[in-house]
Records
---
Amino acid sequence: MFKKILIANRGEIACRVIKTAKLLGIRTVAVYSDADADARHVKLADEAYRLGPAAPKESYLKGELILDIARRSGAQAIHPGYGFLSENEDFAAACEAAGVVFIGPPASAIAAMGSKSAAKALMEKASVPLVPGYHGDDQSDDLLQREANRIGYPVLIKASAGGGGKGMKIVERAEDFAGQLASAKREALASFSDDKVLIEKYLTKPRHIEIQVFADTQGHAVYLFERDCSVQRRHQKVLEEAPAPGMTEARRREMGEAAVAAAKAIGYVGAGTVEFIFDTLTGAFYFMEMNTRLQVEHPVTEMITGQDLVEWQLRVASKQRLPLLQDELAIRGHAFEARIYAEDPANDFLPAIGHLAHLKTPQETALVRVDSGVVSGDSISPYYDPMIAKLIVWGENREAALARLRTALADYEIVGLTTNLAFLQQLAAHPAFAAAELDTGFIARHRDALIPPPPEPDAEWLALAALAELARIEREREACRSRSNDAESPWHATTGWRLNQDSRNALHFRHGDKEYAVMAYFRRGHYQLDIGDRQIIASGDLSVDGRLYADLDGRRLSVSVVRRPDCLTLVREGTSIALEPFNPLLAGLQAEAETGGLTAPMPGTVVAVLAQVGDTVEIGSPLLILEAMKMEHTIAAPAAGKVEAVYYQPGEQVSAGTVLASVV
Ligand code: ADP
């Protein structure tokens, strides 16, 4: 076994690999970009080396530099994780040539599966079933159109070099084919520098079922059963489970053996996944592609087999035999994985970025696992995948596992950026999901139920918000009193008592475009809160770690409170509500004096500078355009005046809060 390995990756997968390495007594070397200098994976590793600036091509994709670090640090092997260099045959070959073990398949196996078309040709020879389609070398528009007509519509055009759903187009009618082909080719060329495509029959109600395979250097190959990854948005997975609901023993063996045959056909070694598309209408399954690396969703397989797949990878890479052979493997219970992303389900799942102002994860046990690369206070940057964490749960059957998933999701609290948490909760609670009515159209079909409008604060939420604010005000008074010389002064009393005055506090909150008022009357030991026409008798304690323990009309409940300058967020049982406390008397004055807007609201790239130094501008005149997370943001003049300076040029990267220009 190795004594020291380098992990050529970041985030949760780097942390995941380090965890197993530690268990096996292997020393670990991390690498990092400037954006990750303080990241969790860097802290967990025994040593860490800087790669370069944040952009992947200047850091995590620098194969030669990574190999050099492996040599310098004495690492005997490199684990590539997923993404980045994990399926780069040149990197695998460079490792082999340098005498550093690449923890993955031989370069030749990566090459064989690198092109979807070539992989299909190989699989055809190995008698693995393929979706009816065309994957030939002749790429003339005419021939592709004829093939599409022959296959019959709808068809799916895929980029041969594809991944991540890029360059994929559904064509419903022959007359639309030429236009969609041109568009698929453009996207493929832009993303993969290769416009080769293949055409497949588009299955209208398929499931995505994949088989985990493993092979060693001594000729053994096994399958570790299947994962169902049918719940997808934008053709990408978001919730996976194992085993696949409704799978029969005979079908499992058939698919497992087909996957092992696929692996054997290319001399595979290590962990791999053979993806199949399963036609729910006919029960037929077809080879889609093989991923020659560890998959994001591997933990569900670990949960149902009781095996550590990273340990298997390390053993196989150090030339040991597979820990178990086929007849020693069995499925126990059921597992789910929910991917928690910084993304906006209501806005077509567009990635989001931001600061994790508050992050609380469910209690980890043998049945609930959280794989994450971030901690509270970290940021999700625009440079990498916006996945925050993976939540994996196990139960003795699907129903028990799903119940555990629901409670664990409700215990997850994230404040500071837009996430898909509420969406995942709706998904886990949906009766059609509980009934395992699975196919890749699930999310689109149930969209309205899965993405409900954000909840409005009712009287109870407002009472909790008021208690949180009152507790904060009281704490500030307390701090003021302890600083004062005269502790006995009635002016510093924290009881809310005031001479000749009914102790009264008016609290105002904004939520979207609505405003709410809570009148709080201090009574001995509690508050009377008037909210609209409701009156609530309330009291509460705010702990130092931001948990409010409240009593509302005799009902006890607790809620997490996250207070940022302009925002009060309350999180309770998986629901979070963000309110903006404001003072109506100051609001008018503030609007007039509003400044700011000259700083970058988030990290991004300056794409256009619209104002010149010396220009006279009006309030609201656009000065610069910043692009972040595929969206453009206009930076406008906060007041009329003269442009004194513009500090950045198009193409330059800026971090959040950077001053971009100045208007005087
Ligand atoms: P990528 O490598 O870009 O992620 P895949 O080939 O793995 O693309 O396909 C991604 C998803 O697209 C699949 O999981 C499935 O939901 C859908 N898909 C792929 N091929 C077909 C097909 N022939 N018919 C219907 N859906 C398909």
---
Amino acid sequence: MIDYHMHTPLCHHALGEPAEYLAEACRQGLLEIGFADHYPLGLLGIEPKNKVSMDPEELPGYISEIRALGEGQNRVRVKLGAEVDYLPEKEKALARLLDGAPFDFVIGSVHFIGDWDFTHPRHAEKYESADLPQIYRRYFELIWQACSSGLFDIIGHIDVIKKFGHRLPDREMEPFWKETARVLKKNDICFELNTAGRAAPAGEFYPGRPLLELCREEGVPVTLGSDAHAPEQVGRYFDEARALLREVGYRELAVFTKRRRSSIPL
Ligand code: ZN
Ligand code: FE
Ligand code: FE
Ligand code: ZN
């Protein structure tokens, strides 16, 4: 198995050193891991009230630390990735920043609707006063734009808008699910089964089963990540995730080297 979504303390909301994440992956016998810490929002000219990413000047240190870890004698292969915020008005700036960057893979995630960091527990109360169908529409429009931006290899936690348990009925979700699977396929982009949602109020993986099934039908490649923000979260719920992936028909997971996709058996 692989874990392609792990953080480091540089993002100000994760615990443990990268070497401890690696040690946990070794203990579990994972084949490959990918660090995907939050890419510096400062490089995009954004300074949210709560720091959720490394500082721009920390990026070179992050890169060299993960690389050094990968060059050590490990049983687990270590890949260098980043989780990058998709901000529609920053597409050009981001394209320049990522051009020639040394990452094996780049996860594109939507955490912001306007300046609302809706995945942050401290800002979750805003859901209560929000127009939920409108918020969902805006969220998925951003996901579709992220898919067609050509900036990313993987779309992160693709329905994380449900994180705090604010849900629309399935019949209202269906058009969002269908369009999402279609846009992923059209842009030949991979998504992750992100297991962190199981521990959030949402209580299930990102994405949930209906969208996962549609992606499988479309033949969209999938990868797997725990979104670990602490070493003990590495590989969390992976038995369940693997069973679910196989149940819906997946037999491979996508892996990346210098932003080229290949696959390994599931
Ligand atoms: Zn995070
Ligand atoms: Fe994220
Ligand atoms: Fe993450
Ligand atoms: Zn994440």
